[in-house]
Every structure is written in structure tokens, then in C-alpha cells.
Amino acid sequence: MDYYHSPSSIKDALSMAGKFSGNYTIFAGGTDIQIYRKQQLDTNEHIIDLSGIDELNSIATKEGILHLGAMTTLDEIISSDEIQLHYPLIAEAAKSVATPVLRKTATIGGNLLVKNRCVFYNQSQAWRNGMGSCLRDVGTICQVTGGKKDCYSRNVSDTAAALIALGAEITLMTPDGITQKPLKDIYLPCGIKFHNLEEHSILTQISVPIKPKKWWYKKLRLRKTLDFTSLTVAATVDINSIARVCLNGVSMSPILVEQTMDTLTQENLTRQARKNCKTVDNDLMPLKYRREMINVFLEEWWDSIEII
Amino acid sequence: MGLKQIELTVNGFSSPFLVQSDEVLLFTLRERLYLTGTKEGCNQGTCGSCTVLLDGKPVLSCMTPTLRCVGKKIITIENISSGDTLHTVQKYLVEKGGLQCGFCTPGVVMTMVPFLEENPNASREEIKEGLSGNLCRCTGYKKIIDAVENAAEEMRS
Ligand SMILES: Cc1cc2nc3c(=O)[nH]c(=O)nc-3n(C[C@H](O)[C@H](O)[C@H](O)COP(=O)(O)OP(=O)(O)OC[C@H]3O[C@@H](n4cnc5c(N)ncnc54)[C@H](O)[C@@H]3O)c2cc1C
Ligand code: SF4
Ligand code: FES
Ligand code: FES
């Protein structure tokens, strides 16, 4: 019996997903999921490796809309002249993920679906056994919140913040057909089931309609490289003066504040952001500091657009 | 996960052997082929010491499923010098004191060789960025960066 599968078309990948239902894991670059396997946090028996599906690796612009194949690597995105010129926000966000060598393997699709993180969960099995596993693992309560029955692990996708601020849509394929939806609508405010993709879905494409008039991006992390985000803010203002400010790394899903600049004030932006972020003490940086940095980043963004 | 017979091409040689279905390339290289030049540091993608080339592209072998490498060309640190003549990057690491214990060095070499081929005119800042996934616990990085800068200069001339 084979356990490792390398389909060469989306159709084959979907039929494998149907065949191994409930017992398979998709590998794109594998730079996130591989660690879950090493730590026995993902124990599915079958691996479906998408890296042999050439049709999923592409960067193209059609009728003013940028289309990225889900298996395009972050490095290919950063190096693309088209993206550097017209979508620098995407390049900047991709460049802030992981390290240069990892970005040559890590894909944009994998980054949008990177699993939520928590200092009590993303640990070796020995660490988790010693500490007492939480409800996202085999335990019954959340360790961070001291007993709550919900998981508050953080969505840490840097490119999700950027692509949501750009109003991106995604294309999903299932054995039943194709669906398209705004990227922001796939994320759920739950650390365990953090997206609402149907069973057997494969993310195939990301489409970006907006070339914003202004953009801004900043990531808070311990070191300038390697570390996952403690707070990512991506913001755009389009030609109709609609501001889209997306925060990630501070809640179970990316938090979007979308409002016309005519009515937006720094105070109500910060209030909306702080109210919607369910930030708990599950990162290497202290909770109070991370909360305070939300205000600092939003103020920096606000000052930057006032100057322009 | 069961055993599977595969053929891998490592440093120009192809040979068949058995691997576990979920094995990573780092394990295969070190434990099955005894190519122990590739180092296991963190085994979770954060230190860069396990870097090898897969079809010319640097990858972290601790994160790469071995079965993904079938039909591809793997190059390890053992195949970077030409016989006794060190690669320019290796030569300057030695000359400029770019290593102390040497544990991170294979990873630094395997990261910087393709980096300089892709970016022959890399600035000091770009070299630093290129090295930002390679942890070194000894040198403090300055001498590694100096060595790579010197190597870049020689490779350009
Ligand atoms: C040292 C280190 C540092 C890192 N730093 C960061 C960081 O700063 N920011 C960050 O966001 N991430 C970081 N990561 C995590 C990871 O490298 C990135 O998120 C990367 O972009 C994931 O892409 P991938 O292709 O490797 O995904 P994979 O690991 O292959 O997949 C991630 C998840 O998405 C699913 N998936 C992937 N593609 C598809 C698809 N097309 N359809 C359906 N499901 C799919 C997989 O099943 C898996 O659950 C880091 C990882 C390491 C090891
Ligand atoms: S937030 Fe709570 S339940 Fe979720 S991973 Fe962390 S400790 Fe576990
Ligand atoms: S051993 Fe692979 S990156 Fe550290
Ligand atoms: S020389 Fe010792 S880790 Fe780099």
C-alpha cells in the first residue's frame, strides 16, 4: 500500500482526496505541515503532495486582475517584476515570511492555509505531555485561558493580511465543482477549525482585483527573520477612498476594518480593531505589549496616509 | 507508513534502496547513505544547517520528504569542492575565519553557493538577508559575511 502520493493533475489530486477521505494531508511546500507531522500533531496516513501539479504554479494578469496559482512559491512572487511593480504589498508580505531558503519551497496557497499557532500547542510531544495537553490536542481545556472550552490560537498568515487588504478572491476545487469566494470569508474565529473549506477542497488560485492608491505593511516579530508574526498589519486605500486595514497574528482569524476614509478616524479604527481581536497570552511576546502595539501600528499607518 | 524501494540520484550517483514513506531527506542522507556532511541542527526548519541542493535549488533537507526527491538531482556538501580544490565560498570561509566549530558551515556553503550564482552582484546587506536562515552559534556572523563578500568578488572577476 502506498502512503505518499504525487498527483500530476488537480483531477487526480481530488480523486485521491475522495479515496483517502479523513485520512490524508495535503503537502504544498510542506514547510508548515511537516513540523506538525514531526510533532505527531498530524498523524494522517496518506500524504498528497501537490508539488507535481504544474498547472497550479503560475503568475498571470488578465483584464487587470492578477491571478496567482496556489503552488506559486513565495520566492517566485517576490521575484516577479509584475508583482513588484503593481502589487508591492504582496511582495513585501511574502518577503516577511520565514527565511529566504524556506520561501523557495513555501507556497502562497500554503501560507494562506498555514495552521493557527499557540505557544502551548506548537511544541514537541514530550513538551506537551509534560505540560498537559490542551483541548486542541488530546486534552479537554484551553491552557492559555485557564480552562475555557474554546481555542484562541492565532492565525499567523502574513500574506492573508495583505491579500485581504487587497480584496483578493480565491478559487477552490472540490469533486463537485469550482467555487470562488472572497478570501476574507474563508477564515473562522476558531483556533482549531480556522477555515470553512469544504471537505476534499483544493485551493487552486488567488485573484487580486485592486491596485490600491496607497498601501502600508508592517510585521512585529522578535527577530527580523525566521519568526512568525506577533502582529501583522496590512492596509490599503483604493481610488474610491475605501480603506481596508487587516490585522493578523492577534486573533483566531484575520481582522478586517473596511470603511471609507470620509468617516474613518484613528480612534474608531483602533476601537474597532481592538474590539474584534480576541488576543490572549499565547505568543512569545507578552500580551500587554502586543495589545499596545496594535495601537502603535495603527497610529503609524494613520500618520503615513495623512502625510501622503 | 511502510517501506518503499526507490532510486535517488545523489552527487551524480544513482542507487536503489528502501526508505520509509514519510522519511525526510536529511535522515536518508545521513542514516542510509552515511553522507554526514549535511548536519542536523534543529530538525524543524529554523537553523539552515541541513541545506542541500535539489535540482540546483537550496532546500532544507529536514523539511523535504525523501519521496519528493525521486527523479531529481540532489547535491550535498560532499560534492561542492572539485576534488581537493575548495569552492571559492569554502576557500574564503577558511581564509577569513568564517567558521569556528564548523557545524553550521555546510549549511552556509549550500545556501551561499546558489545565492551567489543567482545574485553575483549582491551587496553586503543582500548577503546578510540571504544568510538570515542560517544560525551560527560561534562566529557572530561578521566573518561569515566577510568571507561571502570576498567570494562574491572573486567569482565576479
Ligand atoms: C522557521 C520557519 C519560519 C516560518 N515563518 C513564517 C512566517 O513568518 N509567517 C508565516 O506565515 N509562516 C511562516 N512559516 C510557516 C510556513 O513556512 C509558511 O506559512 C508557508 O508559506 C507555508 O506554505 P507551504 O507551501 O509550505 O504550506 P504547507 O506546509 O504545505 O501547507 C500548509 C497547510 O495548508 C494546507 N494546504 C496547502 N496548500 C493547499 C492547497 N492548495 N489546497 C488545500 N490545502 C492546502 C496543507 O494541508 C497544510 O495544512 C514558517 C515556517 C518555518 C519552518
Ligand atoms: S489557545 Fe488554548 S486550546 Fe488553543 S492551542 Fe492554545 S492552549 Fe490549546
Ligand atoms: S536541521 Fe533543517 S533547518 Fe535546522
Ligand atoms: S561555526 Fe559553530 S555554529 Fe557556526
Describe this protein with a few key phrases.
heterodimer, A: 308 residues, alpha+beta, Uridine Diphospho-n-acetylenolpyruvylglucosamine Reductase, domain 2, Uridine Diphospho-n-acetylenolpyruvylglucosamine Reductase, domain 3, five-stranded antiparallel sheet, B: 157 residues, five-stranded mixed sheet, 17% strand, elongated, binds flavin-adenine dinucleotide, binds iron/sulfur cluster, binds FE2/S2 (inorganic) cluster
What does this structure look like?
The complex is a heterodimer of chains A (308) and B (157). With 308 residues, chain A is of the alpha+beta class. Chain A contains 11 helices and 12 strands. The longest helix of chain A has 21 residues, at 287-307. The radius of gyration of chain A is 19 Å and the shape is globular. Chain B has 157 residues and is an alpha+beta fold. Chain B has 2 domains: 3-79, Beta-grasp domain (Ubiquitin-like (UB roll)), CATH 3.10.20; 88-156, DNA polymerase, domain 1 (Orthogonal Bundle), CATH 1.10.150. Chain B has helices spanning 25-32, 88-95, 105-118, 124-130, 142-156, and strands spanning 3-10, 13-20, 51-54, 57-60, 73-75. In chain B, strands 2-1-5-3-4 form a 5-stranded mixed β-sheet, with helices on both faces. The N and C termini of chain B lie far apart (51 Å). Chain A binds chain B through residues 1-4, 6, 27, 30-31, 34-35, 37-38, 45, 47, 49, 51, 98-102, 104-105, 224-226, and chain B through 1-2, 4, 21-22, 24, 43-46, 48, 51, 57-60, 63-65, 67-68, 111, 115, 129-130, 132-133. The structure holds flavin-adenine dinucleotide, iron/sulfur cluster (SF4) and FE2/S2 (inorganic) cluster (2 copies). One FE2/S2 (inorganic) cluster binds next to loops of chain B.
